[in-house]
Amino acid sequence: MQIGLLTSDLTPHHGWGNYSLNLIESLSNLGHDLTILSASNSEPLNHSAHHCVLPTVAPQEPNFIFRLMFSQPKVSKLLAHCDIIHSTIEFYAPLLQWISTKRPTFMTVHGSYVFLPVMRRFPVDWLYKKAFENTYIISVSHYTNEVVKEVVPQAKASVVMNAIDATQFADIEHKISTHPIVVTLGGVKGRKGTHHLIEAIAKVRDHIPDVQCHVFGTVTAEPDYVAFVRQQIADLNLENTVYLHGFVEDDIVHDWYAKADVFVLPSISAGYKFEGFGLATMEASASGLPVIGTYGCGAEDVIEHGKTGLLVSQDNISVELSDAILELLNNRDKARQMGLAGRQKAQSRTWQNIAEEITDLYETALK
Predict the structure, then answer these.
(1) What pTM does this model have?
(2) Neighbour-count burial of 9, counting CB atoms closer than 10 A to its CB (0-12 exposed, 13-18 middle, 19+ buried)
(3) What is the C-alpha end-to-end distance of the chain, expressed in Å?
């Protein structure tokens, strides 16, 4: 099958790029012939049909829609031979419609940018609405798919749940720490619920005085929010309990996963922002950690409540989150069993599975 892929910059350091790289490899392993058009700021692949010709999305170029329009002739020519065209991100949706020429087009939606048909001004919102209605949408979680149906009820949408490369975490062996350790990954952001985690840790400390919490990920994306969280830590006298490490290399994160007792990511849905899947949570599960997340987001597909971890209500998070953390820290056998079950669940979902499921969708659309 001849497949044209529209991708962001191809990097493992953000969700779009990581998804695209894994999809490229897994579709290639199935024998598909790929033509890859990536953002102009992408690192080149060792692939004969890779072209860096699309406007950038991270960061997004000024006048993005106009640049997308200007790229149409070149894109059409490069993909003229393809049976299927698939955009691995939401921003290129209008281009799919402009170049389809009655061929099936697909688009993967990952989370908050499913709101593009309603979050942009006219006529850009109209362009995205029409594009979303006229392509096959692949949602990375059931929650994301429900949002798709709300935003664009006419859309043809299916769920192909996300995956990770669990082999990267298979060798992590847990160590016994001198004190209970809670970890989280994803940066200090409102959508990640960092302030709720800080509040919960303050309550946990009342029962477990030597608890430690380590937060990994960017501290630059939302400066005002980061300042609020730092002040919160100071106000609650948590300077020797909560540590904001910022971005660190994977091997450092893995070392902390080995020492940790529980992973917590209390994602919050607010306005257009929501957790589309929860890759960090699945990675923690693959590391053998029990995990805590929230209902009302993509984490519901990652965490089996009571088996691989715990889910808490976003509406009652101020009470339920600290209770959930205490439940796992005070019951090490239960936490260990959840970690083992989570590792097994994470290992059972592979990129080969995703490629096969997406190929089935391609073949159905071509009939």
Answers:
(1) 0.93
(2) buried
(3) 13
Measured CA to CA, the distance from residue 192 to residue 266 in angstroms comes to 6
Q: How many CA atoms lie within 13 A of 300 on its CB side?
A: 15
Other Cβ atoms closer than 10 A to 223: 10
- Residue 273's Cα: distance from chain center in Å? 12
Task: Using alpha carbons, select from 228, 205, 230 the residue that is nearest to residue 215.
Answer: 230
CB 187 within 8 A of CB 197: no
Helical spans, DSSP H, in the chain: 15-29, 64-78, 93-99, 116-119, 124-133, 142-151, 194-207, 223-235, 250-259, 279-286, 299-302, 317-329, 332-348, 351-366
Q: Which two tokens stand for residue 108?
A: 């993967």
Rounded-to-integer distance, Cα 223 and Cα 93, Å? 30
- 303 three-state secondary structure: coil
Predicted pLDDT at 222: 95
pLDDT at residue 290 tops 90: yes
- 140-149 tens-digit pLDDT: 999 999 999 9
pLDDT of residue 81: 96
